[in-house]
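FW: tagging you since you asked about this chain on Friday. Here's the raw sequence from the shared folder, copied in full. Didn't touch anything.
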Amino acid sequence: MDQSAAGVVSTTTTTSLVGEFVRDVVLWRRGRADVSACLLAATVSSWLLFYGCSNTTLLSLAANVLLLLLTILFLWAKAARLLNRPAPPIPQMRVSQQVVDEVAALLQSALNTALSVFHDIALGRDSLLFYQAFLCLWIISMVGSFTDFPTLCYTSAVAVLIIPALYQKYQECVDRYMRFAYMNLQMYEMVYERFSMKCFVRARDCVMELLKDP
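HL: got it, structure written out here
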């Protein structure tokens, strides 16, 4: 029981540390700005390398590098065995159960959050959340219609590294416009509900009149 509790505490602590690190990188703060800049530069450079300036893809490059590495190590090991030389210094590579549990915990937390958001939107509990999800999905759909999936992934990575930091810097101005837009959306929602109710009442009255006629 104590080991189980210790494992839960360890997983929770690791998840919290990973989340804090990701938040710092995305928001370019607490000395993580160099990591954020490197990630942004690597994302843009890799897109230019694989999709902008050549026909090389990430999959073909990874396969070629892995093929070359395996060939060199295989020939090295065979030559070392024939010449009575030491084998290549390759450590035993394994994924520990702790790493698997931590990754599974992160995936579970993310999936539960996404499912909870979907559940709240599907039941109409949060109008603002619906508008946010609608806007995000609409933007993704529009962007996806003009580009391919790898470019969309690169664009999303660049957006994740830029938009949150800009929002934190200009949060007051953005929140002011978002509140104004939300008030307008609420007004339109009330008008739509009243119009829908009037249409429903008229349709019900028409049906009742038709049923009364012999």
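FW: The chain is about 85% helix and 0% strand.
HL: agreed, and The CA atoms of residues 167 and 191 lie 31 Å apart.
FW: great, closing this out.
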